[in-house]
Amino acid sequence: MFDTKINTNIDECLKHFQRTQGRAKIEQLTMILERDEIGSRLISEHSVLSGEDWRKRREKMQKQDDLKYVLEELTGDDLDKDTKEILEKRYALFRNVYEGLISEHLSEFNPKIQKEPNLNILISDIKSSVPVIVKKNNKVEWDRSIQDQIPQILAQIFAVWTLKNTQNYNNMRGIDSAQSYLLMPHVAQIISLFRIFGIGFTKHVKVFGFRIGWKHISDDLFNNLVEVGTGEGKSVILAIVACVFALLGMDVKCSCYSEYLSQRYKNDFASLFQALGIDERIEYGTFNRLCENFLNEQCNLRDKVRDMILQNKNSLDQTNTTVQTRPKVLLIDEVDVFLSEKFYGGLYTPSVLIRDPTIKNLLSTLWNNRYLPPLRSIKNTSAYIDCAQRFSN
To answer: At what angle do helices 187-196 and 234-247 cross, to 10 degrees?
Structure first.
């Protein structure tokens, strides 16, 4: 509550500063603040500053908005003339749908009486048109029909994202560069998303189960790794991928090494997730927390182990494993950190605290008799005998 009040006061001060000093001064202030971590945090948390920051980013990222340049610089598997042509055609489809939706909704939007455009029909169209993924034999059913819909689904989701973030555009409405204040995806982000969803890949033709030298365009969905440069909108890509999978009926886990970044990313896109009705299907968290949640999905392992010990059993009670769960997808931010020794391949060592009077008495006895010969003398104490009987299994 205290933080909210302070942030509200800061917002009001910044708006007053913008009205009285103009855009040029806001730009100067943003340049000063972005020099350190605290300033960067202020920029991300306050719309007046983030709007100016976004406009500057768009100016710097003009190359990323050049489709020809992006495709020429794109590297990776299965990239040839044919696959790049597919990416180009899919991007044209995306752009046509996206720009049409933005133009249509902004033309009907009246900022004097509306906080944001009315998106009810668009969101309803998204939900009704997106197919639901089926899981068979522990494998997700993904085919060409789903892949073909990806450009349109992305265009619709991005349209909702853009139209739910029009506050900076509203403030600048009427000036020539107002469009620069809209949150809009750039080409590199869209091409990255296409690749994540398996667009623009090839696979070998099989005859009677044997692979031959010919290849054809793949419609498969597979594990993928996409490299995006610093400042090129990685969090946006992550959130939009999460939206698509969640709309397709999957549970999405977005993992990051930093608790602060996880929370910030989640907050940045919370309004989008809520608008699409998928916020309960998308979970952001650190590697450790998501791992813990996954292991405890059907039961709380710590509680189960604690109960087993305190009830003097030698095995865990059986849990209900027939609970139906949705297909899951894991999205990893900063995968290089995940692959470090600290996480990937490291031991997961959860612990549980056991409280019992006999344990407390034994610990007190051990401390009071800490100078006795180690084990033989301790085993003869009543505290040890009581504890051994209490936990005989």
So the answer is: 40
Domain around 294: 289-326
Q: What are phi and psi of 205, to 5 degrees?
A: -75, 140
In a shared domain, residues 306 and 263: no
CATH number at residue 120: 3.40.50
Q: Rounded to 5 degrees, what are φ and ψ at 108?
A: -95, -5
**How do beta strands 134-136 and 139-141 pair?**
antiparallel
Domains: count for the chain: 4
Token duo for residue 365: 């006895």
Dihedral, CA atoms, 79, 335, 198, 186, nearest 10 degrees?
-80
Q: What's this model's pTM, rounded to 2 decimal places?
A: 0.73
**pLDDT tens track of the chain, all 393 residues?**
446 677 777 777 877 777 777 666 766 777 777 667 776 677 666 666 665 555 555 555 555 568 888 888 888 888 888 888 999 999 999 999 999 999 898 888 777 777 788 899 999 999 998 887 776 666 777 888 888 999 999 999 999 999 988 765 555 444 444 466 678 898 989 999 999 998 888 775 555 555 565 566 777 888 888 888 777 788 999 999 999 999 998 899 998 888 888 888 888 899 999 999 999 999 998 888 888 888 777 777 788 888 888 888 877 777 666 555 778 888 988 887 777 777 777 777 778 888 899 989 988 988 887 776 667 778 888 888 898 888 887
Question: What order do you get walking across the sheet with 251-256 strand by strand?
Answer: 282-286, 251-256, 328-332
Q: Are residues 105 and 145 in the same domain?
A: yes
Answer whether residue 334 is part of any domain.
Answer: no
